[in-house]
Amino acid sequence: MSVLVVGTIALDTVQTPFGEKKDILGGSGVYAATAASFFGPAAIVGVVGSDFPQEHLEYLKSRKINTESIQTMAGETFRWSGYYEYDMNQAHTKDTRLNVLLSFDPKLTAEQKKSDYVFLANLDPELQLKVLDQLEEPKLIAMDTMDFWINSKREALKKVISRVDIVLINDAEARQFMETPNLPVAAAKIIKLGAKAVIIKKGEHGALLFSEGVHFSAPSYPQEMLRDPTGAGDSFAGGFMGYLAKTDDRSEKNIRRAIIMGSVLASFNVEDFSLERMRRLQPSEISTRFNEFKKFSEFEILEVKI
Amino acid sequence: MSVLVVGTIALDTVQTPFGEKKDILGGSGVYAATAASFFGPAAIVGVVGSDFPQEHLEYLKSRKINTESIQTMAGETFRWSGYYEYDMNQAHTKDTRLNVLLSFDPKLTAEQKKSDYVFLANLDPELQLKVLDQLEEPKLIAMDTMDFWINSKREALKKVISRVDIVLINDAEARQFMETPNLPVAAAKIIKLGAKAVIIKKGEHGALLFSEGVHFSAPSYPQEMLRDPTGAGDSFAGGFMGYLAKTDDRSEKNIRRAIIMGSVLASFNVEDFSLERMRRLQPSEISTRFNEFKKFSEFEILEVKI
Question: For domain B3-170+226-296, which CATH number applies: 3.40.50.2000, 3.40.1190.20, 1.10.579.10, 3.30.1330.10?
Answer without folding.
Answer: 3.40.1190.20
